[in-house]
Amino acid sequence: MSDITPQTEITHPQGLPVAAAESQPPATFRTDKLAPLLLRFLNRLKQTGKSVHTISAYRNDLSIFCHFLADEKIDPRDFQSQFQERWVHFLAQHGRKSPASVRRALMSSRTFLHFLIKEKIIERSPLLEAKSPKQPAHDLLTVKPEHYFQLGNTLAKGSELNDPKAIRDLALIRLLGECGLKASEAAQMKWSDILFEGHPDGEPQTVSLRISGQNERLVKADKPVADALGRLRKARLQLSLSAGPEDKLFFGFLNVSRKLKSGALHRHGVKFVVYEVCGEILNIPYNSESLRNHAILRWLDLGLNNQQVAQLAGYSSLNSLERFRTKTKSQRRPQRRIKKNIQGEAGAT
Predict the structure, then answer these.
(1) Cβ count within 10 A of residue 204
(2) Rounded to an integer, what distance in angstroms lies between the CA atom of residue 258 and that of residue 242?
(3) What distance in Å separates the CA atoms of residue 189 and residue 184, rounded to the nearest whole number?
């Protein structure tokens, strides 16, 4: 299927194999229904406000899924375990070899099957009864608190020496690691999106950030973030860069080329800065998402409920917080198992 960017309406996907209706037994699912059903599903996502990137990811994954069902002549109502193994092999043949890509494709297909059941196209599917693949967990998913402290402490020393790069990097790390911004959101922020709060004659004590985009929201931050942003504004002026309401926050001075000076950073530039800073200070390849996850875990540790955290992080669904809820509860699971074993031994005696 060709990669079609949704505009006002999603058009018919091209290249989807269509099995001849007469070749299928009358009682089986007709695979020539897949193309219009996929269109209905993608348009439903668009109506619910999903972003273009989300719709594109679903379209790419489900195109492969529909290809597989049509090629193998598999009824979604009879998707047994052996078919799932063959589908994973089919994904690898189409370039989906990493665990994360396979996991996303499996989850996309399950969402599509839920849609088919809701639309009363099928009654059930064995694929929905299987356990969902879990998010792979490793040390790079979240910046550890001690590493985050080391980042801030090192960059703060450089900013006190009026190093423009350290000033910029500290403000960026603070926004990502304490306010939970995405790299794209940090790159798009303007000075008009920031409201410094405090006594007019003194230093600002807090700051409110208006995050625009697909998930527009308001995030409040404490004095360290306000101080870092205040230093960033002064650094821009010292570099003869304007800091007007419509100007972006982060400049490109001493970034990729270390020679050019630009007034703004693209989201890929923001990601590069994070890689560079974490590599130089920590010798660990943390990324911008690792810092964002650090902020989310900090909110959960502070006692905020799932709805509040989802709103602050800009999640459209609480399901996105599943891996964080699992991590925060992980320390209590062994205690429950031990208690259960003790009760079992007491009953046996």
Answers:
(1) 18
(2) 20
(3) 9
∠ Cα 133 138 143 (to 5°) = 125
Q: Determine contact, residues 282/270, Cβ cutoff 8 Å.
A: no
> Residue 218: pLDDT band by 50, 70, 90 thresholds?
very high
Contact yes or no for 176/186 (Cβ under 8 A): yes
The string over 230-246, giving b where at least 16 C-beta atoms fall within 10 Å of a residue's C-beta and e elsewhere, is bbbbebbeeeebebeee
Q: What is the pLDDT of residues 80-95, one digit of tens each?
A: 666 777 877 888 888 7
pTM, 2 dp? 0.59
Backbone phi, psi, residue 219, to 5°: -125, 130
Whole-angstrom CA distances from 115 to 32, 49, 320 are 17, 16, 19
Per-residue buried b or exposed e for 56-67, using 16+ beta carbons within 10 Å of the residue's own CB: bebbbbbbbbbb
Interval 23-72: pLDDT, tens: 444 355 566 677 888 888 888 888 887 777 788 888 888 888 888 888 87
Rounded CA separation 44/4 (Å) = 16
Helix/strand/coil (H/E/C) assignment for every residue in the chain: CCCCCCCCCCCCCCCCCCCCHHHCCCCCCCHHHHHHHHHHHHHHHHHCCCCHHHHHHHHHHHHHHHHHHHHHCCCHHHCCHHHHHHHHHHHHHCCCCCHHHHHHHHHHHHHHHHHHHHCCCCCCCHHHHCCCCCCCCCCCCCCCHHHHHHHHHHHHHHHHCCCHHHHHHHHHHHHHHHHCCCHHHHHHCEHHHEEEECCCCCCCCEEEEEECCCCCEEEEECHHHHHHHHHHHHHHHHCCCCCCCCCECCCCCCCCCCCCCCCCCCHHHHHHHHHHHHHHHCCCCCCHHHHHHHHHHHHHHCCCCHHHHHHHHCCCCHHHHHHHHHHHHCCCHHHHHHHHHHHHHHHHC
Q: Which domains does the chain have, with CATH numbers?
A: 21-129 (1.10.150.130), 145-327 (1.10.443.10)
Q: Please indicate whether residue 181 or residue 80 has the higher confidence score (pLDDT).
A: 181
